[in-house]
Amino acid sequence: MFDEKQLWKERFGRTVKELSRYLRYIFNGHIVIVMVFLLGTAAFYYQEWIKTLPGHFPAAAVMAIILALLVTYSPIYTFFSEADKIFLLPLEDRLSGYFRRSLAVSFFVHAYIMVMGLGVFMPLYARVNDGNFRTFLPFLLILLSLKIINLLIRWKIQYYIETSVHILDACVRYAVNAVFLYFLFRGASPIFMLAAGGLLILLYWFFSVKSRGKGLKWEFLIDQEERRMTSFYRLANMFTDVPKLKDRVKRRKWLDWLLSVIPFKQDATFKNLFVRTFLRSGDYFGLFIRLTFIGAGAIYLISYGMGQILLVPLFMYLTGFQLLPLWNHHQDKLWVNLYPVKGDIKENSFKQLLTSILYVQALLLSLAVLANGGWMASLLSLTLGILFAYVYTHFYIQKRLAGSRA
Asked: Is 39 exposed, middle or buried (CB count within 10 Å of its CB: 0-12, 13-18, 19+)?
């Protein structure tokens, strides 16, 4: 006897267990300390920036543009797997309770994000509205109501396989959400908000009528669920080995000039392998680019000289720590162990690559310091960054590399 309630409990419990397993590695002691420091620094400078805002600052427009993105982005977590399009497809008409629970869980996840997003912007709103925080709860209730209607529309859109329909839906909902929120934060007449809200209800009614008689697009739902889990596994793989992660390789032909400088000789075997892996496999190169840009942006926005200097080794630590999985990237490939090279060449090649990456990042972050902090602070940042890179790659990670060899 098929029990859709039991099926949902099993799928939900399995997913929560899987996420919890890897979240323990992600939020380990080192990362928590770094995150607390970054969040504390960001909160301090955010508050200082808010104090400088004039009374005519367009807070309503800024809040509407950004929070509308959070409202519009409404993925629905179905917890489907590849085999479901064979075994569950014949039972689609008996899964209404399953889908309602999935919508409820998706709403609570998004509700938490909405609380955090509104909480970040309320000090900005209060600054240009004479310190008024009393509207937080009414704003939150309205945002949650918007999220509910957006989730319902999104569910109906998933009956369509055409990409153009999905794109058009996202654009229209974002525009309507942004207009609605702008009227809300500006304190406009409720008539304007009712008109925008009516458009969303009309959209839901329209797609409800059009989707009647259509079947669920199981391939699309399964693909979306696998994409979300793959993104999470890719994040977790920066902190521990994830066997379920499917490795991706990108050609990146425009970076071939970096490979041409590596000599074609036996001692450079692992150097060639690690450099190619960093540039083409997984998300190592993208991670380096993202953290460098984020670090440069944070450094440029901070006006306190010592804070700029300290952020350089901090972002270098984040980069170095999350590039450590590169060391074990090929551990399951037997042929790598058959290379006729000395045992210490692999370790030296990895250290040289990681040191070079961190040296380049130290230079780029120091240029960000130079753009807003002067040449003396930039020179000090570069010196500190080079020193940190050497100590990190030659001493700090030594125990981890030795443990991997064992």
From this structure: exposed
What is the per-residue pLDDT for 240? Answer: 64
Q: Which of 73, 64, 70, 65 is nearest to 181 (CA)?
A: 64
Rounded to an integer, the average pLDDT of 92-114 is 91
Instruction: Determine contact, residues 150/85, Cβ cutoff 8 Å.
Output: no
Phi, psi at 281, each rounded to 5°: -100, 150
Q: Structure tokens of 24?
A: 């323990």
Give the pLDDT confidence of 296-353 residue by residue, as tens digits.
888 877 766 677 788 888 889 888 887 887 877 766 666 666 676 776 777 888 888 8
Mean pLDDT of 29-48: 74
Cα–Cα dist 76/110, whole Å: 10
Please calculate the CA angle 90-96-97 and round it to the nearest 5 degrees. Answer: 120
**Which residues make Cβ contacts (< 8 Å) with residue 281, sequence separation at least 6?**
247, 248, 249, 250, 329
Classify 249 as helix, strand or coil: strand
d(CA 8, CA 77): 11
Phi, psi of 67 (to 5 degrees): -70, -25
Q: Going by C-beta distance under 8 Å and a sequence separation of 6 or more, which residues neighbour residue 192?
A: 183
Burial class (CB in 10 A: 0-12, 13-18, 19+), 341: middle
Beta bridge partners of 249: 281
